[in-house]
Amino acid sequence: MHDLNKFTALLSDRFRGFYPVVIDIETAGFDAKTNALLEIAVVTLKMDNHGWLEQDSILHFHIQPFPGLILHPEALAFNGIDPANPLRGAICESDALRAIFTFVRQGLHKTKCNRAIIVAHNAMFDLNFMNAAIARSNLKRNPFHPFATFDTAALSGLVLGQTVLAKACITAGISFDNTQAHSALYDSTQTAELFCELVNRWKRLGGWPLPETIAV
Predict the structure, then answer these.
(1) Where along this sequence does the record place binding of Mg(2+) 2 (predicted)?
(2) 3-state helix, strand, coil in the chain (%, to 5)
């Protein structure tokens, strides 16, 4: 039986105290300040007692467009979202963010990490929309780092020679269903699987943990 204190500290040791949280956001355009956020999914991660990274828990919301923001028809056609559909069960973005903050803080406490960091594919897009929504909601005690991210597009380009999510997943041996793509729930879980594979592959290659003689 493993030492529980050692087990819960592994994740914080791996990323210098950062708690990686995978996020995918679907929107009504590319401008975080003027286009509405429509869907968000969050996947937390954990480490087993051998130091392998894996998915933990998922939180997913459909979001009501914030009043006054623009909905570009071409963006809605691309992601297949109908913001007026009552079956979406959409909630306001401030309520979704409060739930996400609580969800993430629970993970921070459990893993003894200091601060959450967003993991996403082309992460600046998701980070900008998150920061804009947080500012609109006037929420305090944001658990996420305001500008640092782990970008799986960049990491996949380095490790796999691919930057498109679907191609990176397939190259890494992860199945990808294009018919489910551009759903925040599906893309976040595939991005989480990809990030775990990239981190675990580095460990399998001997790149982690660092030898004690060079660890800082």
Answers:
(1) 24, 26, 182, 187
(2) 45, 25, 35
